[in-house]
Each structure stands twice: as structure tokens, then as C-alpha cells.
Design brief:
This protein is of the alpha/beta class. The protein has helices at 53-69, 91-104, 124-133, 147-153, 159-174, 194-207, 224-230, 239-255, 274-281, 307-314, 327-334, 343-349, 354-363, 365-369, 386-389, 391-411; strands at residues 2-6, 9-13, 18-23, 25-26, 38-39, 76-83, 107-117, 137-143, 180-187, 211-216, 259-262, 265-267, 286-288, 293-294, 301-302, 341-342, 373-376, 379-382. The protein contains 16 helices and 18 strands.
Length: 413
Amino acid sequence: MALAQRGNRPIALRPPRSAYLHIPFCHRRCFYCDFPVVPLGDRASAEPGAPGSRSMEVYLEQIKGEIRRAPGGPPLSTVYIGGGTPSLLSVEQIAGLLAELASHYGLSEGAEVSLELDPASFDQDRLFGYLQAGVNRVSLGGQSFDDAVLERLGRRHRRADLLEAAQWLQSAERCGSLRSWSLDLIQSLPGAQLEQWTAQLEQAIALSPPHLSIYDLILEPGTVFERREARGELALPEDDLSADLMELTARSLAAAGYGHYEISNYAKPGHASRHNRVYWSGAGWWGFGMGATAAPWGQRQARPRTREGYAHWLQQDHDLPPAPMPFDERVMVGLRRREGVALVALASACGVSSRELAELEQRWQGFVERGLLLQEGTRWRLSDPEGLALSNAVLRELLEWCSQRAEDCQSSP
């Protein structure tokens, strides 16, 4: 257990029990993607001698070395291997990463071990190999069931690939080798309409994934979509339509038995992602790999987003002093959750005065009056679906309050 200082008061910080591993390799970069990835081409494979195989081998040795040099901690209860396209790695390579974590930290009994899969990058034999290696939860990056939409997104897979992959996951779930799986879709795409999105949701519900992640399209700087939007080539939905799409999602999935436990995540009972909840609860996690963010004590530390930068970073010392997550970040991630935040207790723990807290609550009164933000005793949460759909407006007020608070602190003697 580490000790951090808040004012004159030491705070005990527990080492995390979660780890994220970033695998940056993919066949191609999707048009909306700004993640730290390394496109290798459509023929890339982990097979010895195949395009990209040597790059993967070198990188895996680097990330294993980072794990070996990391501080120790208790056995891990959640592991998430994301990317990129982790399913470009062989079964043996995934098993090697899990073995490295198990050697350094240990894996607790019943640990949730998640792996992102791209529908066009694996077959049924490889899926069952991953499961035998220790993976027990899968996140399937479907994004859409419409071939034309997938092509416009720059995706490599097509509807048939997605449906076949879902069938393999269903089979693994039925035989008990897969504990849970999630399907990712993107709403608010260019040209989106309520009827088309209704059809997408119906197809997703028909597959009965235990978990669904429904993301809004965000135009990130430097992406193909951002450049196209600047040229007036993307017909993005207006804010009102985006809110209607999110409300339709929440209503349809609730009727199908999914709980809305976080802004973008829905799950059947017992299938909420434990790893996701670590992020949104403000708890810490280890992070390994190019572009990965770690927050072992709450305070975030990001690795460089390029292979060259990451290789150089690994040669340096990076002792991150114990420091809890700041109040504003704790509130921002907490409001993403269905249960919201216990604001008074959190403010007290983070050294926020009652006067400062009253100022923040006053900023939020307009959202309370509109029914977007609910105050239930000392706990605050966004209403579902209206408040969650307009969460950015609430969070902007929080950021403005934080900025004003920082200015006041700098000007005070």
C-alpha cells in the first residue's frame, strides 16, 4: 500500500488489481480512429515470416519487459487486452502475455480476462485457442451490420464476417468456455436515421450478446473523417437527432433486458464489464504498451503513442509518485455511471470546501430543473436517457468550475 499526501494528511492508496495491455497492430486504420495503432497491411499475420510478424515479436518483448520492471502488487482481478487488433496475435502470443502478468502479479481466481476481437481477423479454432489460454470475455468490434456503412468507415470486415463471429461466440458461451462477450456498435454515423438505427438495434438484440457497447461517433483530430468533415463531405446528424438516437437505444435495450450501467455500456444481469467499472469508479489500474495509460494510484501516466517513442521511453526511469485522482476527474468518470457520485463524501476526501462545492451545485441547478441531473440525498447522477445523452453539457460546467477554482487558488495569497 502506498501513501500520498493531501495537504498535511497522508492518504493510503491501495495498489490496483487491474491491468490494460495495448496491442497497436492492425491491418488498416479505420477512418474514425485516432488510437495509437500500427497499420501493417491486409496480409499481416503473426505467422513466422509473414508481413508484420517481426514487428509483433519485437513489440511483445518490449511490453513483457515493461511488465517485468513494473512495481509489484496483488493478484489481478481484471485484465483487458485491447488495441489495435489484438486478434492479429497468435494463441501462443496471447498466452505468453497472460503468463507474464501471472508471473509478475498473479491472477486471482475468477479473474475477468477480456480480449478485443475483430470479425475479420480470427476463426473458430483461434477463438477456442484464446479461451484455452485464459481469455474468458471477448469484445467484438462489429460497429455496423451494413456493408456499405462498414466500407465508409474503412472497416475490413463485412456483415457476413460479423454474423459468423457472433455464432462462434454464442457456441463458446453455450458450452461454458466463454463467460461473457460484448458487441460494439457506433451510432450517430454520417447519414444516420431513426429507422436505420432501429434496424441495427434489432439485429444486435437478435444475436443476444450479454453486453453491448454503443458509441457515438466522435470526430478526432487528424482522422480521415475529421478531414472529410472539414471539406463538408460528412452529413453528421444534428444534436437533436443524436439525442433521439441515444434515447431509442436506451429504450430498445431496456425492453430487451439490458441495464444501462454507463453512458456507452449496456449489459444483461451479471454481465457488466468489471474492467470497465474500474475505469469509471476512479480506481487505479496498471497500463502497459505503446500509447497505454496507467493510473496505478489514480493519477494518470500515458506512454508515447509511437513505436520509436515507446522504445525510447522504456529505456528511462518512470517512478510515478503516489497521487490520488483529482476531484474533477473523479466526478467526470463517476457521472458516466448509472449510480453517479456521492458528491459530498468525494469533495471531503479530495479537500474541496463546502463553499466551493456549493458553487458547483449552483452551476448545475439548470440541469436539475430540466430533469437532466438528479440529486438524491448527497448523490448526484444523470437521468437516463435524457441526462446521459446530454452529459457533455453537464461536464462542461464542471470543467469551467474547475478552471475558475484553479484561477482563484493562483490569485489567493
